[in-house]
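Project standup — Tuesday

K.O.: blocked on the structure for the chain from last sprint. Re-posting the sequence here as requested.
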Amino acid sequence: MKYFFLLVIFFSSVCDAQKNNSKNDLSDSFEDAMAQRYIVIAGASADFHVLDNLSKEISKKTEIEYSNYLVYDSKRGMIESDSSDDEIYAGYYFPRRDDTSRISVEMMWYYSSGNMQNTNTTKMIIVTGVFDTKKSALLQLKSVQKVVQDAYIKKMNMYMGCMH
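H.V.: unblocked you, prediction finished:
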């Protein structure tokens, strides 16, 4: 699985460079595809059902949509369905990267390290929003903290380029 993600990152860089007709080397195109994001996190657990129930409660009290595009697997955590049309990610975790205010349950290892190779845990987190500005994240955090007092913002660099 470690090599699978290395290949994905490599081909993502190639894909991004080809789209831009860039003459930069692959490391330049990879760096160009990185973007600073502010992630609002409202809980962590290895128990999906605890996070699912808390996500529903946050959604009800804040009116932020709760929507998982992934499915829960007790051994692998949150994954694209094994029967997904996406042959590359079927059965694997695909990180949420869109700039939105939406509640979802995500794999903690990605948001703690940003490293697709560090998949040694099934601990999950509630992400209530991914934002390109701190101001937007702070606005949402204020609302979420009315339900989960210890919700917080995680600033991280995320790969935003082509993942296929």
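K.O.: great, moving the ticket to review. The mean pLDDT is 80. The two ends are 16 Å apart (CA to CA).
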